[in-house]
């Protein structure tokens, strides 16, 4: 009938019972007449366990060697899943990332896909094999193994779907779709039937963990229709695609991100080009900056405050201390970013005030604010993050 790419995360293949469950899902799809390519993550906490083992030996191990190690996790998963599918009587072959044709750049631990040579994948499909591919990994021009960073298996699956023009890319997780908030934390969180690429990209970037943001960006670029659904409960999930724009504004989700550090540069000399020097220095070290706030100059000085991910906070401070004199640089890692996402915010006055009112009524102080056409983000104390999400969700998506 068509070509279906299915991706299963680590929790979906965490043990033998779940591996067999995934094998049944895959073979059921195959029995309907579809060609099937399956992308699999490392089992359960395998990646974290491997990182812990590395830290026991060398906490400052080269990223190349870390990639060599971490690729082992997916190799275990694809072999076990292929064995399970074989035990059910279906033709199957497992392929590592490089065998599946993934060529990447040489940024170890966070590589980008340059291209996929699809010859092997197409050859195996022509033989009517179910193809099980190791997600998260590829090979660079030096023939070294590389990894795509956290959530990279989502990106692997979308890349295959794009390269082979698959009819659908299904992302199986331990939740039943995309919700308006984390259903494990917010009681009245509602599952969405569909969501636009732009809205899903914002949610993924702002802390929703159901999809990797790079995979959504790639899906939008190549027009890959995604379906997010549960590997444990066989019901329809959420479709991610281009959805016709409507005049009515809908808040599609409320999310939080605790992987945030707030870096403040105080009493900085107010001279031309100083902001360029600061942020070009951070960019040269691959430190991504999110929200930026600059104060009005006073007495020849100004303050610049910005957010980065938590791991990069201390690194940013060290870099800036080396290049800036006569100013104070501090880093606060006890903060979180809470955001609302929905199309049409720009043309609906009062959205921001409604969010701020919900936070005020919960006695939550706002430290920074960032807006775009489809999202509003605030930085608050980390300890108030869950309370903030519940309050804002209730304000925009009340109980039925």
The total beta strand count reads 20
Identify the strand order in the major beta sheet.
Answer: 3-6-2-1-9-11-12-10
Count of helical segments? 11
Low-pLDDT ranges: none
Main sheet overview: 8 strands, mixed
End-to-end Cα distance, whole Å, is 40 Å
Please, what is the average pLDDT? 92
Content of β-strand = 15-25%
From the spread of the alpha carbons, the general shape counts as: globular
Computed over alpha carbons, the radius of gyration is 23 Å
Helix content: 25-40%
Describe the overall structure.
With 400 residues, this protein is of the alpha/beta class. It is 35% helix and 24% strand. It is built from 11 helices and 20 strands. It has an 8-stranded mixed β-sheet, with helices on both faces. It has a 4-stranded antiparallel β-sheet with strand order 13-18-20-19, with helices on both faces. Helix 2 (46-57) packs antiparallel against helix 3 (63-87). The protein is globular, with a radius of gyration of 23 Å. The two termini are 40 Å apart. The model has no long low-confidence stretch (mean pLDDT 92).
Quick summary of this structure?
The protein is an alpha/beta fold and 400 residues long. 35% of the residues lie in helices and 24% in strands.
Features:
eight-stranded mixed beta sheet; 11 helices; alpha/beta; globular
What does the secondary structure layout of this molecule look like, with pairings?
Blueprint: E1 3-8, H1 16-31, E2 35-40, H2 46-57, H3 63-87, E3 92-95, E4 102-104, E5 113-116, H4 119-126, E6 130-134, E7 137-139, E8 145-147, H5 152-164, E9 168-173, E10 194-195, H6 197-205, H7 213-222, E11 226-230, E12 238-240, E13 253-257, E14 261-269, H8 274-284, E15 292-294, E16 301-308, H9 312-323, E17 328-332, E18 335-341, H10 351-361, E19 368-371, E20 375-381, H11 385-396
Parallel strand pairs: 1-2, 1-9, 2-6, 3-6, 9-11, 10-12
Antiparallel strand pairs: 4-5, 7-8, 11-12, 13-18, 14-16, 14-17, 15-16, 18-20, 19-20
């Amino acid at each position: 009938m068509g070509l279906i790419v299915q991706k299963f995360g680590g929790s979906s293949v965490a043990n033998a019972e779940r591996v067999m469950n995934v094998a049944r899902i895959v073979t059921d799809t195959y029995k309907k007449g579809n060609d099937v390519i399956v992308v699999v993550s490392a089992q359960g906490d395998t990646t974290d366990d491997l990182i812990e083992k590395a830290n026991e030996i060398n906490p400052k191990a080269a990223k190349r060697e870390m990639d060599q190690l971490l690729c082992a996790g997916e190799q275990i998963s694809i072999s076990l899943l292929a064995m399970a599918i074989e035990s059910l009587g279906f033709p199957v072959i497992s392929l590592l990332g490089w065998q599946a044709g993934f060529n990447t750049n040489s940024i170890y631990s966070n590589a980008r896909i340059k291209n996929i040579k699809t010859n092997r994948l197409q050859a195996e499909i022509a033989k009517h094999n179910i193809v099980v591919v190791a997600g998260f990994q590829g090979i660079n021009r030096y023939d070294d193994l590389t990894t795509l960073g956290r959530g990279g298996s989502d990106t692997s699956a979308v890349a295959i779907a794009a390269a082979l023009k698959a009819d659908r890319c299904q992302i199986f997780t331990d939740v039943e779709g995309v919700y308006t908030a984390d259903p494990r934390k917010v009681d009245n969180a509602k599952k969405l039937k569909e969501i636009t690429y732009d809205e899903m990209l914002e949610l993924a970037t702002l802390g929703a963990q159901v999809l990797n943001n790079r995979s959504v960006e790639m899906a939008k670029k190549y027009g890959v229709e995604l379906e997010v659904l549960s590997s444990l409960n066989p019901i329809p999930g959420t479709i991610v695609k281009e959805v016709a724009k409507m005049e009515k504004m809908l808040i599609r989700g409320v999310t939080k991100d605790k992987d945030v550090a707030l870096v403040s540069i105080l009493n900085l000399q107010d001279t031309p080009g100083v902001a360029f020097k600061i942020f070009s220095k951070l960019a040269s070290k691959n430190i991504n900056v999110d929200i930026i706030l600059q104060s009005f100059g006073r007495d020849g000085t100004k303050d610049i405050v910005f957010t980065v991910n938590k791991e990069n906070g201390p690194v940013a401070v060290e870099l800036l201390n080396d290049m800036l004199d006569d100013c104070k640089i501090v880093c606060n890692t006890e903060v979180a970013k809470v955001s609302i996402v929905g199309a049409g915010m720009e043309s609906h006055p009062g959205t921001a005030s409604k969010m701020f009112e919900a936070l005020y009524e919960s006695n939550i102080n706002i430290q920074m604010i960032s807006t775009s056409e489809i999202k509003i983000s605030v930085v608050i104390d980390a300890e108030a993050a869950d309370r903030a999400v519940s309050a804002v969700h209730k304000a925009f998506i009340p109980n039925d």
